[in-house]
Amino acid sequence: MADEWWRRAVFYQIYPRSFADSNGDGIGDLDGIVEHLDYLNDGTDRSLGIDAIWLSPINPSPLKDWGYDVSDYCDVHPELGDLAAFDRLVGEARRRGIRIILDLVPNHTSDQHPWFLESSSCRSNPRRDWYIWKAGSPDRPPNNWVSMFGGSAWKWHEPTGEWYLHLFLPEQPDLNYRNPEVVAAMHDVLRFWLDRGAAGYRVDVIHGLMKDAEFRDNPPLERVEWGSQTDVELKQRHLYDVDLPEVHEIIRGFRRVIDEYGDRMMVGEVWPRDNQSLAMYLRPGELQQAFNFRFLFCPWKASRFRAQVEEMERILPAGSWPTWTLSNHDFPRHITRYAQGGDAQARARLAAVMLLGLRGTSFLYYGEEIGMPNAEVAREHRRDRVGRDGCRTPMQWSNEPGGGFTRSQRPWLPLGDCAVNVADQMNDPHSMLSFYRRLIRIRRASPALVSGAIRIADDAPDDCFVFVREAAGSRAMVMLNFGEERREIRAASGRIALSSDPAREPGAVKSGMLALSPNEALIIEIA
Ligand code: NOJ
Ligand code: CA
């Protein structure tokens, strides 16, 4: 059990519209991904060496929320390809030892999904109860719940004279998981792609599938929990709209379906009230993995990252496994977030060593391996209603027109600065890409780093995060200096497997104090 593939895996998230455009229409597509699989893993040191891909939603969608508003769960958006292209992708990936997980969006559908078209057609429609409808007066929403994208979470539906709930856009009505038919329908969706060879799912807003049966008002927020812009604006404690005890039963139902297939997995997008609650989603029979966004939101401080890791290590249920990520399609890329007050390149390298050095599964976001910064998207080219375009711009394959992403003169989102690109980094031993490749290779070759236990050093200076990983017969020490000063850190004796400082001499280290340069990350293979 401790040996399941997803525990050892390095995942790579692809935003399909932005990875590679195979047919010149300016939109990335599934065949484009197939063309670049060798870049991800061709079994040699030239490739990045990832084990699995998470594809952001590929389903047909009116694209109000870029695929997170699904209008057909069992097909592929025509701009991205078709079911045959999906089958090709799974097959070609499998030949290279790469698994594909899909993004399942069960909390809500598009308002154009046939289920909602039926549900909203009249109050007596048999699918009325598939969504969350409430009677009331048109001038007062049924309660104070707010949409994660701002404003009330309720929309008045004039034709049938009731409100419906949408935790996100009004075009994303929430499904009603208190109706067993909805649960069964989503189980069928799960099976549809598992039957076609998907290795599992990243599950969107999984903590939101159940709402308070009495629809009580959320209490006001006592303190800003997440420190993000949105939550400052939301100003309420999400006590009754998300993260309810009842959601765990729905998750256990999903898991039973996953387990019918033996080796498949789910990683949840969970925004719990605290890490204790996050751990509940990782109990046996629930999710195999869940993202920890508090880690992603940590400012550039060793003590903050360390505190997150320590807490997770303390509270995770026995046998469960951490998951670490620093970037995705919802937040500014981390190389840009960490650039303030320091050297972005050096910090990004340190961040990579932390991510891939920690006990747990790592999720990379396309482009981070070349240090692609967040792009400034000019107002007239913006596509996302809530301002997330900057982290979704096309992959920068080369510095040619179209960035090697597309032949079209009009990519769906403009390219960022293609001075940062794969082609230039491919054969440069000092590039970010070469650094990631080396790091992933070192991880793969080290039983300690892949699956070992973690012990966090308590004698490291405040601005350093140091830990030892250990599996039978293999030990590695990961030393991270987040500070802008040289720091003396107690090192174990062994061999330097990797350093982010180009000036660091490779070779043996003796046990004792070792000086790390500012922002240096070091892995020692302990003798
Ligand atoms: C989380 C997804 O990551 C985000 O992109 C989306 O807008 C919301 N869930 C709603 O589905
Ligand atoms: Ca295309």
Short synopsis of the structure:
This protein has 527 residues and is an alpha/beta fold. Helix content is 25%, strand content 17%. The relative contact order is 0.10.
Could you describe the 3D structure shown?
- There is one protein chain.
- This protein is of the alpha/beta class.
- It contains 16 helices and 19 strands.
- It has an eight-stranded parallel sheet. Strands 12-13-14-19-16-17 form a six-stranded antiparallel sheet. A three-stranded antiparallel sheet has the order 4-6-5, with no helix packed on it.
- β5 and β6 form a beta hairpin.
- Bound molecules: 1-deoxynojirimycin and calcium ion.
- Calcium ion binds next to loops.
Chain-wise SSE layout:
Layout: H1 5-8, E1 10-14, H2 30-35, H3 37-40, E2 52-55, H4 83-95, E3 99-104, H5 114-119, E4 133-134, E5 154-157, E6 162-165, H6 180-195, E7 200-203, H7 229-234, H8 247-259, E8 265-268, H9 275-280, E9 289-290, H10 293-296, H11 302-315, E10 323-325, H12 334-337, H13 344-357, E11 361-365, H14 422-426, H15 432-445, H16 447-451, E12 453-456, E13 464-471, E14 474-481, E15 487-491, E16 494-499, E17 507-509, E18 512-516, E19 521-526
Parallel strand pairs: 1-2, 1-11, 2-3, 3-7, 7-8, 8-9, 10-11
Antiparallel strand pairs: 4-6, 5-6, 12-13, 13-14, 14-19, 15-18, 16-17, 16-19
Bound molecules: 1-deoxynojirimycin and calcium ion (CA).
1-deoxynojirimycin is lined by residues 65, 68, 105, 168, 204-205, 269, 329-330.
Keywords, please?
527 residues, alpha/beta, six-stranded antiparallel beta sheet, 16 helices, binds 1-deoxynojirimycin, binds calcium ion
